[in-house]
Structures are given as structure tokens and as C-alpha cells.
Write a structure and sequence with these properties.
Layout: E1 3-4, E2 9-10, E3 12-16, E4 26-30, H1 31-42, H2 49-68, E5 81-82, H3 99-108, E6 112-115, E7 126-127, E8 137-138, H4 139-147, H5 152-160, E9 164-167, E10 172-173, H6 191-206, H7 222-234, H8 245-259, H9 271-274, E11 275-276, H10 289-304, H11 319-331, H12 342-358, H13 383-396, H14 413-425, H15 436-454
Parallel strand pairs: 2-10, 3-5, 7-8
Antiparallel strand pairs: 1-11, 3-4, 6-9
Helix pairs in contact: 1-3, 2-3, 2-4, 2-5, 6-8, 10-12, 13-15
């Protein structure tokens, strides 16, 4: 089943105590306390319970939409939402909380409204319905509807349409900046790359000069680099082809704009668009290529560090893999959980990169080199491509189905076809890209054939 990048309930939210551009203070408060404060500021505790519930759903969802779209952070602000009712919803520092509203918020704070078929928290625009009216929910109007016997869900349908759902029991976690921390460039792979590819393709519908990315597979290809460069050119950013923090948030901002994610008429983010190719965390019991990749990296690190045991590359996260992860985490000062979370993954790849950087020239002798630490994809041109072509070409002399390719250093269609054939023959994911597992298996076959020829 595909991994879906679902929204989550943040543990905290940072509120700017004034309009966005004002020199006001930011305060960070628990999300549940923020919702209690806003609800106690926006609605009356004497209203019917169903009206209160409907309004709390709306307040929660509005705040989550601001966080999920990074509405303010993508514009360079260091907060998630303001307390200005001109822009957002009321928040009064240190105000008293009504008991019944607080109790309802404790029940409802991890539930929010979505459009059917979409994953993002819907932009639940609202107003008081008396002094201010709008196209969204009328707060005072919910009172009359509740008195007519409508349920909270039916009240929400009156204002937002029949095609809405309420997500219940959403996961709660610490809020994290979506920018991965280091620029994304050709050869990188991960969910962040998939997100950028998807968003650039959608922006390209409105700005057709941005070339389409054929495979939104989470691998930063040369085609992805070209799309990034054109985006940067159009929106007056340095044309580096890498996704730094400024480019990341500029893509986020324009993606939200063309999708109208902060509008009642939002296009929405479909389940397909929200799919990500890599698990956010790997733990015991999981299987698949991401597990095999972790095993490969740990084996290489273990070769240079005898405190780590070697693992079979069986793509099964069993007790041996968990123990190896625990040993790695202990050695490198990480929380010892046995789970490969984002921090552990980043440290594993960093250590692997340090090992590669410390190897002397010609360390491989007549054998194949270690995986260079990034994906090789169509359009690349460098010495690592040349080395890989050398390895695969030798294999092609023994496997009739694999075409012998010239070692030009350019990863063109001919090389991609050879890679696809190799992956099919050796039952690897057929992607046409050369990641650690494809490289390692090609290297193993090459080393075996070199040794055989020597005999």
C-alpha cells in the first residue's frame, strides 16, 4: 500500500500577536491550548453544543490549513498564524477558558475537515455572520441550525457543501520545518524530492515554460534540475538548479497559490499527489527496498567499524537489522530506538559519505568502486557514470539480454535501457535509475566476472 503524506496535529503552534507585518511578539503555545483560547474568544459558551462543536471543527481546521500550507513561513515569517481577525482568528494572550469549551476542545482538537478525495485540511473560512459576512461559515448562523436539530456535520455541510469529511484521531507530533535542512540536488532521493517534483509539475500547468518531470519518483534527476532552473528563472531566484531554502518555500508558495489551498474553492491535494515513495521511518517487521538500502549502508559502515555486525541484504527488517541500527545509534550519539527515523537516516548517509571521502585514490584496485552516495539518472555526465558503464558493459558480455554499452560518461537512453534490463533480470525495482542496491549488485557481478576472467 502506498505511503501517504497525511497532515498531522502539531504539538505546538507559534502565534504572532498582531498583523503579519507588525513588530509584535511571537509566542509558542500547545496547539490544544491555542484552540481553547481561540474558541473561547470567537464563540459563546451558552450556544447549543452542536453549534459549539461545528465551530471548533472549523477553528481547528483553519489553523491546520495555515500550518499545512506553511502560509506564513513560506513568505519568510517565523510564525504559523497571527491573532489578527483581519487575517486569521482571534487569540487573546492569557485569557480565561470556558470550561465547557475546553472540554469539547480536548475531545475534538485532533479532528479536522477535508474535501472528499483530498488530504489537506480544508480552508474553513468563517465570520460572525452579523457585523461581518462571508462565503464561509456564519458563527451565529450555526446557532439557529443547531436549534433546528442539525448535527455538527450537517451544519458544516450547509456552509461547505455535502462533499466534506471529518478526519478523526489524526496523529500528533512535534511540528517540523518541511525544508529538509540541506539543498536538494541531482542524485538526491527522498520524499522531499517527490514533493518538489509533484509541486513543480502542478505549477507548470499554469506556467508552461516549466518543463514537465516525467517520473515523480523521488529521485532528483537532470530533468528535475531543469524544471527547478526554469522555476528559478521565472520567479527571479538564482538559477542554480538546486532546491535551497528560498527555492523550497517559493515552490511551496506558488503551489498553494495555483491550487488555491487557502481558498474555499480549493483544488485540493489528491491521495495520488500525497503519495510518497519512501517510508518516513523503518522499524522491525517492515520489508522492501528501503530496508535493503539501510542494510547496505550499515554493512559498508560496519566494514570500517568492527563494532557493527554485517547483515544479509534480504530487505527484511528483522532482529539482526534492529540490533545493527541500535548499535549504530549508540555509537553515533543518537537515541537508541532501533527505528530508522529521519535523524538516524541522515546520520547513516553522512557517515557513509565521510567514509567515501576518506578513501584514497585507486582504493578499489581492479574491483568496482563503492556506490558514490547519490543516484545516477538519465542525463548525467561524469566519471561515476563512466565507471558504472564499464561495470555494466562487462556484465553485458556474459548476459546476452543486457546490451554492451560504451563507457562515455554520459547516462543516455542506451545506458538507461541497459539498467532497466539488468534490474528486470536480477529482480530489482525497475526504475532505470542507479541507486545503492542496483550499483552494489552490478559491482558484485562485475567483481565476480573480473575474478573469473583472471583465473
Amino acid at each position: 500500500m502506498p505511503q501517504i503524506n497525511y497532515p498531522y496535529i502539531p504539538e505546538t503552534i507559534t502565534v504572532h500577536l498582531g498583523p503579519p507585518n507588525s513588530n509584535a511578539e511571537n509566542i509558542t503555545v500547545p496547539f490544544v491550548d491555542y484552540i481553547k483560547n481561540v474558541a473561547s474568544s470567537e464563540i459563546y459558551p451558552t450556544w447549543p453544543e452542536n453549534a459549539l462543536r461545528a465551530n471548533i471543527y472549523v477553528i481547528v481546521t483553519y489553523a491546520l490549513n495555515r500550518i499545512y500550507t506553511e502560509w506564513y513561513r513560506s513568505r519568510g515569517y517565523d510564525f504559523d498564524i497571527t491573532n489578527s481577525t483581519q487575517y486569521d482568528q482571534a487569540f487573546v494572550r492569557d485569557r480565561d477558558i470556558f470550561q465547557n469549551i475546553g472540554d469539547l476542545v480536548d475531545e475534538l482538537f485532533n479532528q479536522y475537515v477535508v474535501r472528499q478525495g483530498s488530504v489537506e485540511p480544508y480552508f474553513t473560512q468563517f465570520c460572525n455572520g452579523t457585523t461581518v459576512t462571508c462565503d464561509g461559515l456564519s458563527q451565529w448562523g450555526t446557532v439557529g441550525l443547531s436549534e433546528q436539530g442539525l448535527t455538527p456535520y450537517e451544519i458544516l455541510q450547509r456552509y461547505y457543501g455535502n462533499d466534506i469529511n471529518i478526519v478523526t484521531d489524526a496523529n500528533i507530533q512535534a511540528i517540523e520545518e518541511t525544508y529538509p535542512g540541506t539543498p536538494l540536488r541531482v542524485g538526491d532521493a527522498g520524499n522531499e524530492v517527490k514533493i518538489i517534483q509533484t509541486e513543480l509539475n502542478r505549477i507548470g500547468d499554469n506556467y508552461p515554460a516549466i518543463p514537465k518531470i516525467d517520473q515523480t519518483d523521488g529521485i532528483f534527476s537532470v530533468q528535475t534540475e531543469n524544471a527547478v532552473r526554469k522555476f528559478q528563472e521565472i520567479f527571479d531566484l538564482p538559477q542554480t538548479g538546486t532546491v535551497d531554502k528560498a527555492t523550497w518555500y517559493s515552490i511551496k508558495r506558488y503551489y498553494s497559490g495555483v491550487k488555491k489551498l487557502t481558498d474555499l474553492l480549493s483544488e485540493g491535494i489528491s491521495y495520488f499527489e500525497a503519495q510518497v515513495p519512501f517510508s518516513s521511518a523503518l522499524s522491525q517487521g517492515m520489508t522492501g527496498e528501503p530496508v535493503r538500502i539501510i542494510q547496505y549502508y550499515l554493512n559498508v559502515i560496519g566494514y570500517f567499524n568492527p563494532n557493527l555486525n554485517q547483515l544479509p541484504l534480504d530487505a527484511v527488517f528483522g532482529p539482526a537489522t534492529e540490533n545493527a541500527v541500535r548499535d549504530f545509534q549508540e555509537l553515533y550519539g543518537l537515541p537508541v530506538t532501533g527505528v530508522v527515523d529521519r535523524a538516524t537516516w541522515e546520520r547513516i548517509t553522512a557517515v557513509y559519505g565521510e567514509i567515501l571521502g576518506g578513501l584514497p585514490e585507486g582504493y578499489e584496485g581492479k574491483k568496482a568502486k563503492l556506490y558514490p552516495g547519490y543516484y545516477l539518472t538519465e542525463g548525467m555526465r561524469n566519471d561515476d557514470v563512466r565507471d558504472f558503464q564499464t561495470y555494466l558493459s562487462l556484465i553485458g558480455r556474459y548476459y546476452r539480454d543486457i546490451p554492451e554499452i560504451p563507457a562515455t560518461g554520459y547516462f543516455g537512453p542506451q545506458t538507461k535501457d541497459a539498467v532497466l534490463t539488468f534490474q528486470r533480470l536480477f529482480r530489482l525495482p525497475v526504475t532505470g535509475a542507479v541507486g545503492p542496491i542496483t550499483w552494489n549488485l552490478v559491482a558484485e557481478q562485475y567483481d565476480y566476472l573480473v575474478e573469473t576472467e583472471r583465473l
